[in-house]
């Protein structure tokens, strides 16, 4: 009894002494199980009867088979459940780290996407008071035209001893001038609505029926093109070119404005989805009158020709508010392919389609 009490007092005095008088213990010198310590193992070894465990090894001992310290081996034999759980946790940790990295990247992408949408929202909100000076499409076209104007001219050509002719680079041509909504001809407004989006006043920015019809027409055209390609392959006429189907967009004036303001001209599902989101933002923050005003001031009407004022001066030598019904109808028909019709101003299609649009002018509804 006295021996056990003295032993308890000895260990207790060693463990409960003042903190300033505790001996230094370097844990980095020992390779221990997380749930075991030298003092605990020695204390358990001194318990009497069936509660006593196997003797604790010496401090410097090491197992030759496993390479672990003797204290770790001692803890594993004493606590097999804890050791197995520790091993399973150490095996699961490397497997979970790629998942954590994946979730981290997905979270970053989500935050970046939300930040981009907030940027677009702020830009559109600013357009309620400030007129946009340029669009993403205009800047890309200006860069392309500037690159072409800076390109090196071709080498001089000599023939039959004649003097070489040096071709000058193509000059940079750019026309764009903002005019207010009131200074744009009402004939041009009606013609553009009748030609591009006859339900502009009534729809919420996206015409879902037109999108569905365009999707069905494109699918049918693609199916016909594939059948033609299979028929050509069966007939072994590989030199015969298969005509690609024409892609119908079904975009409203609001969607076209969203694409011109912020997006590129590539045809992808991601770009189309972003276009729909921007169209809904435009309809939420701006009224129909403001949307049509921005659209008519930045839509393309030829190579380097943007806006109603520049188009009226380029093709008719007059201001935008002076356009008549026939002139407005011809400009509206040019919108889907302005560079093509700029080179073919006297085409039969342009004349026939202009007559159809002119007959619809008075049925087109303007925004209040």
From TrEMBL:
<dbReference type="InterPro" id="IPR023346">
    <property type="entry name" value="Lysozyme-like_dom_sf"/>
</dbReference>
<protein>
    <recommendedName>
        <fullName>Biosynthetic peptidoglycan transglycosylase</fullName>
        <ecNumber>2.4.99.28</ecNumber>
    </recommendedName>
</protein>
<keyword id="KW-0997">Cell inner membrane</keyword>
<dbReference type="GO" id="GO:0005886">
    <property type="term" value="C:plasma membrane"/>
</dbReference>
<dbReference type="GO" id="GO:0009252">
    <property type="term" value="P:peptidoglycan biosynthetic process"/>
</dbReference>
<keyword id="KW-0472">Membrane</keyword>
<dbReference type="InterPro" id="IPR001264">
    <property type="entry name" value="Glyco_trans_51"/>
</dbReference>
<dbReference type="GO" id="GO:0008360">
    <property type="term" value="P:regulation of cell shape"/>
</dbReference>
<comment type="similarity">
    <text>Belongs to the glycosyltransferase 51 family.</text>
</comment>
<dbReference type="InterPro" id="IPR011812">
    <property type="entry name" value="Pep_trsgly"/>
</dbReference>
<keyword id="KW-1133">Transmembrane helix</keyword>
<feature type="domain" description="Glycosyl transferase family 51">
    <location>
        <begin position="175"/>
        <end position="223"/>
    </location>
</feature>
<keyword id="KW-0133">Cell shape</keyword>
<feature type="domain" description="Glycosyl transferase family 51">
    <location>
        <begin position="238"/>
        <end position="357"/>
    </location>
</feature>
<dbReference type="GO" id="GO:0016763">
    <property type="term" value="F:pentosyltransferase activity"/>
</dbReference>
<dbReference type="InterPro" id="IPR036950">
    <property type="entry name" value="PBP_transglycosylase"/>
</dbReference>
<dbReference type="GO" id="GO:0008955">
    <property type="term" value="F:peptidoglycan glycosyltransferase activity"/>
</dbReference>
<dbReference type="GO" id="GO:0009274">
    <property type="term" value="C:peptidoglycan-based cell wall"/>
</dbReference>
<feature type="transmembrane region" description="Helical">
    <location>
        <begin position="101"/>
        <end position="122"/>
    </location>
</feature>
<comment type="pathway">
    <text>Cell wall biogenesis; peptidoglycan biosynthesis.</text>
</comment>
<dbReference type="Pfam" id="PF00912">
    <property type="entry name" value="Transgly"/>
</dbReference>
<keyword id="KW-0328">Glycosyltransferase</keyword>
<keyword id="KW-0961">Cell wall biogenesis/degradation</keyword>
<keyword id="KW-0573">Peptidoglycan synthesis</keyword>
<comment type="function">
    <text>Peptidoglycan polymerase that catalyzes glycan chain elongation from lipid-linked precursors.</text>
</comment>
<dbReference type="GO" id="GO:0071555">
    <property type="term" value="P:cell wall organization"/>
</dbReference>
<keyword id="KW-1003">Cell membrane</keyword>
<keyword id="KW-0812">Transmembrane</keyword>
<keyword id="KW-0808">Transferase</keyword>
């Amino acid at each position: 009894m006295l021996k056990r009490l003295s032993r308890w007092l000895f260990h207790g005095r060693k463990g409960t002494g003042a903190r300033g008088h505790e001996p230094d213990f370097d844990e980095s010198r020992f390779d221990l199980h997380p749930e075991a310590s030298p003092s605990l193992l020695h204390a358990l070894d001194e318990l009497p009867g069936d509660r006593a465990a196997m003797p604790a090894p010496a401090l410097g001992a090491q197992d030759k088979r496993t390479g672990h310290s003797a204290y770790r081996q001692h803890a594993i034999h004493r606590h097999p459940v804890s050791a197995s759980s520790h091993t399973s946790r150490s095996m699961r940790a490397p497997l979970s780290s790629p998942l954590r990295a994946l979730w981290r990247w997905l979270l970053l992408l989500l935050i970046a996407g939300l930040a981009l949408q907030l940027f677009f929202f702020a830009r559109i909100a600013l357009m309620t008071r400030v007129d946009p000076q340029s669009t993403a499409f205009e800047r890309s076209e200006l860069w392309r035209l500037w690159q072409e104007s800076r390109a090196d001219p071709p080498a001089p050509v000599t023939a039959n001893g004649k003097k070489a002719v040096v071709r000058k680079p193509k000059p940079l041509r750019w026309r764009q001038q903002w005019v207010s909504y009131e200074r744009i001809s009402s004939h041009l407004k009606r013609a553009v609505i009748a030609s591009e989006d006859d339900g502009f006043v009534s729809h919420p920015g996206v015409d879902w029926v037109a999108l569905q019809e365009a999707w069905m027409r494109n699918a049918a055209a693609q199916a016909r093109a594939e059948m033609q390609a299979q028929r050509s392959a069966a007939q072994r006429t590989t030199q015969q070119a298969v005509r690609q189907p024409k892609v119908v967009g079904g975009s409203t004036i609001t969607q076209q404005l969203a694409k011109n303001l912020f997006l590129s001209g590539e045809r992808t599902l991601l770009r189309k989805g972003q276009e729909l989101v921007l169209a809904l933002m435009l309809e939420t923050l701006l009224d129909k009158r403001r949307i049509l005003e921005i659209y008519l001031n930045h839509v393309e009407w030829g190579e380097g020709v943007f806006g109603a004022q520049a188009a009226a001066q380029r093709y008719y030598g007059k201001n935008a508010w002076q356009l008549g019904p026939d002139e407005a109808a011809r400009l509206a028909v040019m919108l889907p392919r302005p560079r093509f019709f700029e080179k073919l101003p006297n085409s039969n299609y342009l004349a026939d389609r202009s007559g159809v649009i002119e007959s619809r002018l008075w049925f087109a509804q303007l925004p209040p």
